[in-house]
């Protein structure tokens, strides 16, 4: 099993450009999450999904969009990139059941907006 | 949303020492987990512990759900324990604390 796979690992964007961060999991997990982590800080929840077709805003959703058309994939879209979106982005997934809700993380995407 | 507070923010130990990290939640949660982020940024799940006590080697964790806090104990610390320890909790949405940065000196 590959677990949670994020692509790309690194990306540099110019201000105003758009891009999609990809996240896929092969564990048949229901729940998926997107977080951002600024240097020296904790993780902030951007969006999350409890199943295909369902998404909800987290703490810092402005400037981002998500979709969940399949159980496996949860892409994060940045529109009109801004320097404030420079961060490391982590995708995570879990079963979401009451007995097995451990979060598994991808290796992260380091994004710089210049 | 739920607020998560971690203490202390920084901790420096000599190898072999013990430590206790604390996590407080602003409201009840049905999911609570502890993570270790290594110096390369990788996040490793240590415990899923919405209540009770669990142990894994030199690490153990206790959650008192009625009082909305959790403790992570590290015994006989090693240099490889260095990194940042996060707790996270929530219901459907999982919120993270700011972390405790642990440095273990040889």
Describe this structure in words.
- The complex is a heterodimer of chains A (114) and B (106).
- Chain A is mostly beta strands and 114 residues long.
- Chain A contains no helices and 11 strands.
- Chain A has a single domain (4-113), classed as Immunoglobulins (Immunoglobulin-like).
- Helices cover 0% and strands 49% of the residues of chain A.
- Chain A is globular, with a radius of gyration of 13 Å.
- Chain B is mainly beta and 106 residues long.
- Chain B has one domain: Immunoglobulins (Immunoglobulin-like, Sandwich).
- Chain B is built from no helices and 11 strands.
- In chain B, strands 2, 4, 5, 9, 10 and 11 form a 6-stranded mixed sheet that branches. In chain B, strands 1-3-8-7-6 form a 5-stranded antiparallel sheet, with no helix packed on it.
- In chain B, a hairpin with a 5-residue loop joins strand 4 and strand 5.
- At the A-B interface, strand 4, strand 5, strand 9 and strand 10 of A face strand 4, strand 5 and strand 10 of B.
Termini Cα gap of chain B: 40 Å
Question: In oligomeric terms, what are we looking at?
Answer: heterodimer
Give the helix level of chain B as a range of percent.
Answer: under 10%
Strands of chain A, count: 11
* Topology-level CATH name of chain B: Immunoglobulin-like
CATH class of chain A: Mainly Beta
H/E element string of chain A? Answer: EEEEEEEEEEE
* Contiguous uncertain segments of 5+ residues of chain A: none
Number of helices of chain B: 0
Given as residue ranges, the uncertain stretches of chain B (5+ residues, pLDDT < 50) are none
Q: What is the CATH topology classification name of chain A? A: Immunoglobulin-like
Shape of chain A: globular
The share of residues in extended strands of chain A comes to: over 45%
Name of the CATH class of chain B:
Mainly Beta
| Largest sheet data of chain A | 7 strands, mixed
